[in-house]
Design brief:
Elements lengths: L2 H7 L2 H9 L14 H22 L4 H43 L3 H22 L6 H54 L3 H44 L1
């Protein structure tokens, strides 16, 4: 029986090895003393190597690059669980800082939070190496960034709402002053004073009404935006 036939009859691991090698094998006798037989053995090895090279080509730099990419991906995959844990911890800290910012907003605190978010994004990009294995973490940090922007906008709307209410109060006071002035004039210089007073009261009332209406509309719009954004933040 030839060695080839013997190999074909084998089972399990050896048979699989034979199939993987596609029947390419060389029998070597390390104890062979005959130089001619040794030379033939060497020639057979060279022949197999030459034929294999013609079929598959050289082991190119592209092969090395592919192998390096696979190795890099494997390293990234191994680090993912620990990286996710660290990133989630950082996100928890950032969320707590956002709550503190909402209670007492300041530009200094806002700047610190933004810097922390940017550092976290840079870390994720560096560790992910373009394999998108940390895509879930990117979304998590982006959500914190959006939350921060919402809270900044909420602060702006709250300030606008407060100013609108202060201005509206000013208009109401102005109208009241006109009414008081009109009353005083009517008492001091009747009956002409009554006419002047009436005009003063009328003008004051009209001015107050127009001013209040415009300010109420602006205040109402700002208040609606503020409340809508606040509900959105509270849902997160």
């Amino acid at each position: 029986i030839s060695f080839d036939e013997w190999c074909r009859k084998q089972k399990e691991e050896f048979h699989k090895l034979y199939e993987d090698c596609e029947g390419r094998f060389v029998l070597l006798n390390n104890r062979e003393r005959d130089n001619e037989k040794k030379r033939k053995q060497i020639q057979e090895i060279v022949l197999h190597a030459t034929n294999l090279q013609k079929q598959t080509g050289f082991y190119t730099s592209q092969c090395f690059e592919t192998a390096e990419k696979q190795r890099e991906k494997m390293i990234v995959d191994l680090k993912v669980p620990q990286l996710k844990l660290e990133i989630q911890q950082q996100v928890t800290i950032l969320t707590a800082n956002l709550e503190k910012y909402s209670e007492n907003p300041s530009e200094v605190q806002q700047k610190k939070i933004r810097e922390s978010v940017q550092k976290l994004k840079t870390l994720i990009k560096k560790e992910d190496k373009g394999y998108n294995v940390l895509g879930e973490m990117v979304k998590l940090v982006d959500e914190v960034d959006k939350n921060m922007n919402d809270r900044i906008q909420l602060k702006i709307l709250a300030d606008k709402l407060e100013k609108a209410r202060q201005v509206k109060t000013g208009w109401t006071i102005a109208g009241t002053v006109c009414t008081i002035v009109g009353g005083v004039v009517a008492l001091v210089v009747p009956p002409l004073g009554a006419v002047v007073a009436g005009g003063t009261v009328f003008v004051g009332a009209i001015g107050t009404a127009i001013g209040s209406l415009a300010l109420y509309s602006k205040e109402k719009s700002t208040e609606e935006q503020h409340d809508k954004l606040k509900k959105k933040i509270n849902k997160k």
